[in-house]
Amino acid sequence: MKKAGHLNYLTHEEIKKYLKPGITTKKIDQIAHDFIIKNGGIPSCLGFEGFPASICISINDEVVHGIPKNRKIKDGDIVSIDFTVRLNGYESDAARTYIIGSVSKEVENLVEDTKKALMEGIKKVKPGARIGDISNAIETYAHNHGLSVVEELVGHGIGTKMHEEPDIPNFGSPNTGIILKEGMVLAIEPMLNLGKKEVCMLDDNWTIVTEDESPSAHFEHTVAVTKDGYKILTGE
Ligand code: MF3
Ligand code: CO
Ligand code: CO
Asked: Second label for 191, Cα 20 to 30 Å away, from 10, 114, 151, 208?
């Protein structure tokens, strides 16, 4: 899983080089697809429950599961990139939101604070801690920074399948949920909105957007529970 996580990280780093105004989301998808294959991995989002691309690209008010197409990214957009990489039978899952050019201070804060909310959740990971400790840390950080938490989509266990037990909501109470043990691997992934928490699905049956059309950010890491804490498998 460490190797799968590392290839996921390298793929994000590769994509980053191309994120400039004018590139289409389809082109970004193609770059990611080819890079994963070239390095011996499988872009396991492709065909997952019928998803038509290798990566999810969600812009501005799109929360997650945006489908790459002919749309060009432009100055002032925030672009969330989320995908799984399968390697030697194991999955990895990571997401980042990028600011393209210049955005308002509040949108910049949304992106930075979502990244920090993920880290607040990750810092709770250690043997003996509980899922609710992670959930609560993310929720508390989000609310303290004026952001709302998407409730319909959650983090998850990960292993030979991309989605395994348990669910990891981005809200909840400390001291609830299953107890973490060394060797478990979790995909933790806050999705935070600048406006209201409500989301809905577009007619393409994939793209999740905010109901009030406010911008949304998403960060995700695959994290292993270690003897005395955690290791981020999709980090540097
Ligand atoms: N990477 C997503 C997650 O964080 C799952 C995407 S499924 C896909 O759980 F089919 F949309 F790719
Ligand atoms: Co993901
Ligand atoms: Co995930």
From this structure: 10
What is the chain's mean pLDDT, rounded?
98
Q: Is 141 helix (H, G, I), strand (E, B) or coil?
A: helix
The identity of residue 55, as a single letter, is I
What whole-number distance in Å separates Cα of residue 76 and Cα of residue 1?
Answer: 35
pLDDT number for residue 138: 99
CA dihedral (34, 35, 36, 37) in degrees, to 10, reads 50
Distance CA 145, CA 194 (A): 10
66-80 residue pLDDT tens = 999 999 999 999 999
| Domains annotated on the chain, with CATH | 2-232 (3.90.230.10)
Q: How far away, in angstroms, is 162 Cα from ligand 1 center?
A: 8
State the ligand closest to the CA atom of 44: 1
Q: What's the pLDDT tens digit per position in 213-222?
A: 999 999 999 9
CA 53 to ligand 1 center in whole angstroms = 11
Determine what percent of the chain is predicted with pLDDT higher than 70.
100
pLDDT at 125: 99
Residue to substitute in 11, 54, 62, 65 for testing ligand 1 pocket (most ligand atoms within 8 angstroms of CB): 65
* Of the candidates 112, 82, 208, the residue with the CA atom closest to the CA atom of residue 153: 208
- Which residue puts its alpha carbon closest to atom 7 of ligand 1? 45
